[in-house]
Amino acid sequence: xxxxxxxxxxxxxxxxxxxxFFDPDGVGALQISSLTKSDGxxxxxxxxxxIEDMKLADQPRAATTLGxxxxxxxxxxxxxxxxxxxxxxxxxxxxxxxTYFCEKQVADTEARxxxxxxGSLRVLPASNA
Length: 129
Hints:
The chain is mainly β. The chain has a single domain, classed as Protein Transport Mog1p, Chain A. It has helices at 44-53, 111-119; strands at residues 2-3, 11-14, 18-22, 28-36, 61-66, 69-77, 82-91, 94-103, 122-123. β2 (11-14) and β3 (18-22) form a beta hairpin. The longest helix is centred in the middle third of the chain and has 10 residues, at 44-53. The chain is globular, with a radius of gyration of 15 Å.
């Protein structure tokens, strides 16, 4: 399990393995998909495989650390004019795939807010329920 500090004024919609955060008056949406590996920790090779599976292997990537998570950050401008920011992150058995999409011309509008939110990522202790 993981948690994040939701930016003030942003809304949160949750599905089974996908959480979406957005400012109703903003320009984009931050989505976080999470998977928990049943046996062992997520490896760097598995992150790289995920990047390839998402057809982003040809994009420049930068190593990143967000709280207890380590992984890669990428950016891509799509043919439809959307700018995508992607983070492939791991902490122990937990894998997070994070995206932020908005129109290319406003891509930096919420960048600081998104960066601050992602910096608050943390791993929650496992519950013994």
